[in-house]
Amino acid sequence: LKVSAKAVYSKYSIEPASPINFGAMIKGTKKSQIVVLENKGMLHFKFCIRQPPEDASASERKSSKEGESAPLAARLSTARKSSSFTQSHLNLGMFTVSPCSGSIGPWGQQKITVDCFAGQEGKCEEQLYIDIPGR
Question: DSSP assignment of the chain, as one string?
Fold first, then answer.
C-alpha cells in the first residue's frame, strides 16, 4: 500500500497593490476601479471583504503582518462616515465594494469593483480588509 500527500497553503495576489486612489473628483460624480484577487495556489479558498474593527488603533489598521488579513485601502476627496453590509456588497462612506465575499478555485481569479460616489466635498479615506481564512 503506497500512501502519499503534499502539504501546501493558499497563495494569492491582489492587483493593484494598496492604496487605491480615486484622485480628485467632481461632486456628484461616480468612478469605478477594479481590484483583481487571484488564487495562485492549488487549493480552493474563500474570501470576505470587511472593514477593520472599530476598536482597532490606527497603527493596527495600517500594519499588515504575515498571516493576517490583507489590507486594501481606498482614498478619495470627501468626508462621510457610515457603513452597512449586505451579502453582495459593502458600503463604507462613499465607497461601495462588490462582491464582498466569494470563493476562488485553484488558478482562478475574482474581479472586485470599488465604486466611489463623490457626494460631499472634502477628503475621504477608508481601509478595507480582504480576509482569506485558513491561509
Answer: -----------EEEESPSPEE-----TT-EEEEEEEEEE-SSS-EEEEEEPPPTT--HHHHH---TTSPEEEEEEEEE----EEE-SS-EEETTEEEE--EEEE-TT-EEEEEEEEE--SSEEEEEEEEEE-TT-
